[in-house]
Amino acid sequence: MSEFETILVKQEGRVGIITLNRPEALNALNVRLGTEVLAAARAFDTDPGIGAIILTGSERAFAAGADIKEMAPRGFADMYVEDFFSGWDELARVRTPLIAAVAGHALGGGCELAMICDLIIAAENARFGQPEIKLGVIPGMGGSQRLTRAIGKAKAMEMVLTGRTMGAEEAERSGLVARVVPAAELMDQALATAEAIASMSKPIAMLAKEAVNIAFETSLAEGVHAERRLNHSCFATEDQKEGMVAFIDKRPPNFSHK
Ligand code: CAA
């Protein structure tokens, strides 16, 4: 895809930035936007010059959900045969650390998209919610699963059943977001975090992300076993040598990202 219609893409140093850009629809996620986000994220993922990716929206909305106007006329067979929303699962397979910088509405698919990312940094005006039930549907991009894992059954059940939204402060207290920052500082703070991650070895950061994500798929014993194997594989990289020698030499490491 040479030209994007629904997103803006740029690179700052080793950080790739994808900005959702459908202001007329509060960044509602339509099929085209999903295809474009995935294409941009995949391109960054395989680029050795990129060590972290930021996904963001506008001050008013990260994303106000899946595009209701696009979904409204569809029937079960359309949704089922197209396996609607399944493309977003591919974003969870991107191995480069993905940061959601969220301001304003993160509702329905918008909240789910933020949760597909590895960590969420929220502006003070961010609002999270799964209001699908008010439209006669339920979450379809993983919200019932990822929200429950992030904040526990009691709050997730309340939000999914009533459609109640949660402000940034409650979201941080509940474990949904990593940090809340003043709205004017959102991108600077997200960029600082992304730059910190991108300054590490890319393969090691990928292994670290993989290790944490295993916690959501396995028993504790299997997870610890998998972590140990991933830890051992770090020792096959140039960056492990550099990181440890730099410590001993009392100088900052100069990772080759190999
Ligand atoms: N889909 C399509 N268009 C949307 C949209 C969405 N999810 N959310 C907002 N828009 C559009 C509005 O229709 C409106 O367009 P028009 O000017 O052409 O009428 C424009 O964006 C601005 O929205 P509002 O005028 O409603 O703005 P507001 O400030 O008064 O309200 C809001 C903001 C509370 C976020 C409100 O827009 C809203 O409730 N949006 C829908 C939220 C929602 O239900 N999301 C879940 C969608 S379903 C889903 O995501 C399924 C899934 O699991 C993946």
UniProtKB/TrEMBL annotation:
Keyword hit for Protein transport: no
Domain of life the protein comes from: Bacteria
GO molecular function terms noted in the UniProt entry: enoyl-CoA hydratase activity
EC category name: lyase
Reaction catalysis annotation: a (3S)-3-hydroxyacyl-CoA = a (2E)-enoyl-CoA + H2O; a 4-saturated-(3S)-3-hydroxyacyl-CoA = a (3E)-enoyl-CoA + H2O
CDD domains membership: crotonase-like
Pfam entry (one): ECH_1
UniProt KW keywords: Lyase
EC number: 4.2.1.17
Family (UniProt): Belongs to the enoyl-CoA hydratase/isomerase family.
Protein name: Enoyl-CoA hydratase
Species annotation: Arthrobacter hankyongi
